[in-house]
Amino acid sequence: xxxxxxLADDHRMVREGIKRGLLDHGFDVVGESADGDEVVRMAKExxxxxxxxxxxxxxxxxxxxxxxxxxxxxxxxxVMLAPHADVESFTAAMQIGAAGYLVKANALxxxxxxxxxxxSGETVIAPQIKSVMLGEANRSRDRASVGGGAGGGTATKxxxxxxxxxxxxxxxxxxxxxxxxxxxxxxxxxxxxxxxxASIYQKLDARDRTQAVLTAVRLGIVALN
Length: 225
Hints:
Layout: E1 4-8, H1 12-24, E2 28-33, H2 36-46, E3 50-54, H3 62-72, E4 77-82, H4 87-95, E5 100-103, H5 108-119, E6 124-125, H6 127-146, H7 150-159, H8 164-174, H9 179-186, H10 190-204, H11 209-219
Helix pairs in contact: 2-3, 8-10, 8-11, 9-10, 10-11
């Protein structure tokens, strides 16, 4: 049986195109919706593995629908689908527990690959949002430099929150590495990586690796490459 997926987008042509592409890639599209309230009802009824949910929906918004689905169905992975990379909606989605944030510009093959990773437990983030965040981080550094270098001291102080090894773990996670890949890169066990992550979450007040990376980027501890 393929990965059971519920699709929600308010544009019929977009929805049909994505559905055909996902069916071709072996997904079992169990339902589709164009409305935020309806997709929540359908999710509760169908209990899919993944809900691919547009950020822009009539009825309740995609973000609100994501929150309700996550509360009712904690095992269902919700991936937001945005018209473009928007840091504000991305941050909101991650804060309420979304398992991913993709944009409609992604090719269907990329979408299928990302959703399969999501089904296996990974958090998936569109490359476009990483580029936007990198640009914002660079602009923040530029402003700090113009302002007399105050940002450098802030970044140095922020780095003191985590150990050097934790910073290395964070950077590899920001680069898209999985836990086994981090372990292999640093020549440590996966259990040790998980212990470092638990410490990082506590120090940065983060719920998961995505929030930890976002916080670390804002504090200047790591960079999105």
